[in-house]
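Batch manifest, entry 17 of 40.
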Amino acid sequence: MISNQITGVYCIATDITKEKNALKLLNKTLADRQRILDYSFDMICEIDSAGHFIQVSKACIKVLGFQPEELIGKKAIDFVADADKQPTLEMEQHLAEKGIQINNFENKYVRKDGNIVSLSWTARWDKNEKTMYCRAKDATEKKAQIHINQLPSVDG
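Output type: C-alpha cells
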C-alpha cells in the first residue's frame, strides 16, 4: 500500500553572506557614483565610440534644458550648433586617435528651448572601453565677462 505521507526531507543550505555583502557594497558604490553625478554643477557624461550619450548627469537640465533620459541614446553632435559641428567632430576624432585629454575645448550647443549656450569641455578617451568621459561647463558668463573686460573704459 502506498502512503501519501512525507517520510523525509532533503535540504541543501549554502551560506550566501559573502554574496549579499558584495551586492550591498556594489549598491553603495553605485549610489555614491550617482550622487557625485547628481550633485555636480557641470554636466558630466559618457559618450560611446559612435557618438551617443550613454550616461548624462542631472546638470544637463540646467546646462541644456534636457532631462538626462532625453539625451541618452542620442548623438551628441546632433545638439551642437551647425557652425561648430565640424571642429567638434575633428576634436573627437583627434581625441580617440591620440588617446589624450582635451581641456577647455569650446563649442556651442543648442538648448531645448532653442537658445545657444557656449560650453567649455574637458574630455578623455578610454581606449579599453571605447568611450569618452566628458565634463561640460557653461562658458556663457565667462565669455561675457571677457567681452566686458575688453570694452574701452569710459572716464566720467
